[in-house]
Structure to design on (496 residues):
């Protein structure tokens, strides 16, 4: 039972994660979703049915989906977290063009002038592709190495 | 399980050369068949298929076909399909699963695309999409996937369940669960809890019962005759019987975890009766609550299960099981049994 307990976050912190998502991206608290912790900062997303099941399982491995990193003042969405929760976002959204997206998906920063600052949801051709950090005219990429498109040769 | 004895056979890849014009091509194909598949293997399938054996041989001698599943947890079906066309990949929809496609053209470029990295597509053999379709879990269900790694069918189950409900995904191999975790993440699955346990003992350890259970059991993979022919080992009878013991243990354990009225799908990518009808028959003989049902989804061609093999006589209901041969739908071979726990 110990592992299950270590995954569960207290309701106060869960509410704080939703609050940060709302403040940063305008994502409202969504029914049917619960958060779990994974390590000190990492947050995972799980369906409420699976969450209810957790307390009845004596042991578990990887559970739910890694959606981002939590800090007291900000929440950085993972690539998949942005794709899953991003459609509910109303602010902090930036659109990349064809050239920029290729560079950005390779994990490199791209030049991007915008009034917005901080973590942003990155969109290309009306599709969410991840989350980046915008400051001083640069859009930083957090695309993990394993997820960068591989060259064909 | 001890050392594995295999019958010698020539490498399939050695025989794959540039196309040869007819009628030499026919002769070449015949040589390839005779040298790639051992005699005992050929005799076995001749007995199973009788008149259809030449069709079967022709089918497994052809190059493998390629399939993809549009991951509707990440992208809607229309956009996903259009994007494949834009990438130069020709698609032909699978009748048994709306998000499944047979692909050709520039399909070998798919793993290098940005769309693939984003998790929009999952490369999955067409026949492998059948067991989750037949299990047909609903978004409210609690589902067990007993032998889950590497996650093709788990992610498909999550897709069918629209990321709702819950899937307990178990696999005995921690190493295989690493790639499973990656696939779950890339596909955006949030309704899955992972366990790393021996499935044969899970019924004594889990204080739960499930609405739906998928037992896609480890097997000799004799159905993968086209896609994995170069690496396939042709196991002897002793090896098949060793795997059968594991399969019986898994199915028995899974059936105990099923709710009354619940449904279990037992599937293998093997076509040997010892790994299929024999295993299901063992469950029927040992559990009066188990009943085989004929699957409702008939959007694919299949053969009924057999009721006799060598000296063994199976339950009559075994004809409700499905044997999917490579020449049926141009996929790899599969065996599927739909079992209900009667209250």
């Amino acid at each position: 039972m110990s592992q299950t307990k270590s995954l569960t976050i207290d309701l106060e912190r869960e509410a704080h994660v939703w609050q940060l998502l709302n403040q940063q991206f305008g994502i409202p608290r969504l029914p049917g979703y619960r958060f779990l912790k994974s390590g000190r900062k990492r947050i995972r997303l799980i369906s409420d049915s699976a969450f209810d099941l957790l307390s009845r399982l004596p042991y578990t491995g990887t559970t739910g989906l890694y959606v981002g990193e939590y800090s007291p003042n900000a929440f950085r969405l993972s690539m998949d977290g942005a794709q899953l929760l991003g459609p509910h976002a109303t602010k902090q959204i930036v659109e990349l063009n064809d050239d920029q997206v290729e560079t950005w998906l390779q994990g490199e920063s791209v030049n991007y002038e915008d009034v917005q600052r901080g973590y942003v949801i990155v969109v290309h051709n009306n599709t969410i592709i991840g989350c980046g950090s915008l400051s001083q005219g640069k859009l930083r990429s957090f695309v993990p190495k394993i997820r960068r498109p591989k060259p064909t040769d | 399980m001890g050392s594995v004895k295999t019958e010698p056979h020539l490498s399939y890849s050695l025989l794959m050369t540039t196309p040869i014009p007819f009628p030499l091509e026919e002769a070449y194909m015949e040589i390839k068949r005779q040298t790639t598949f051992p005699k005992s293997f050929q005799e076995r399938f001749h007995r199973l298929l009788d008149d259809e054996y030449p069709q079967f041989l022709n089918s497994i001698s052809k190059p493998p076909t390629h399939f993809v599943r549009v991951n509707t947890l990440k992208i809607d079906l229309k956009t996903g399909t259009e994007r494949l066309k834009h990438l130069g990949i020709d698609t032909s929809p699978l009748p048994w699963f709306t998000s499944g496609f047979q692909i050709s053209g520039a399909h070998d470029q798919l793993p290098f695309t940005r769309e693939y990295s984003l998790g929009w597509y999952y490369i999955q053999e067409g026949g492998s999409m059948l067991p989750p379709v037949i299990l047909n879990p609903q978004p409210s269900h609690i589902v067990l996937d007993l032998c889950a790694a590497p996650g093709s069918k788990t992610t498909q189950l999550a897709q069918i369940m629209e990321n709702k409900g819950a899937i307990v995904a178990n696999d005995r191999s921690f190493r295989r669960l690493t790639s499973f975790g990656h696939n779950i993440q890339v596909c955006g699955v949030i309704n899955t809890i992972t366990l790393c346990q021996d499935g044969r003992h899970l019924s004594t350890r889990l204080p739960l019962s499930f609405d739906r259970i998928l037992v896609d059991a480890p097997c000799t993979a004799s159905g993968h005759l086209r896609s994995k022919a170069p690496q396939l080992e042709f196991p002897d009878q002793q090896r098949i019987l060793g795997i059968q013991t594991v399969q019986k243990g898994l199915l028995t354990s899974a059936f105990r975890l099923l709710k009354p009225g619940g449904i279990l799908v037992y599937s293998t990518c093997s076509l040997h009766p010892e790994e299929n009808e024999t295993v299901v028959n063992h469950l029927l003989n040992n559990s009066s609550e188990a009943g085989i049902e004929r699957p409702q989804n008939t959007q694919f061609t299949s053969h009924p299960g057999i009721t006799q093999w060598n000296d063994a006589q199976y339950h009559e209901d075994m004809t409700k099981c499905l044997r999917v041969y490579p020449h049926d739908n141009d996929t790899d071979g599969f065996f599927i049994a739909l079992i209900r726990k009667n209250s």
Q: What stands out?
A: The interface with chain A takes residues 74-75, 79, 109, 111-114, 116-119, 140, 142, 163-168, 177, 181-182, 184-186, 188-197, 205-208 of chain B (CB under 8 Å). Residues 127-341 of chain B form a domain with the Rossmann fold fold (CATH 3.40.50.150). Residues 56 and 117 of chain B are 36 Å apart (CA to CA).
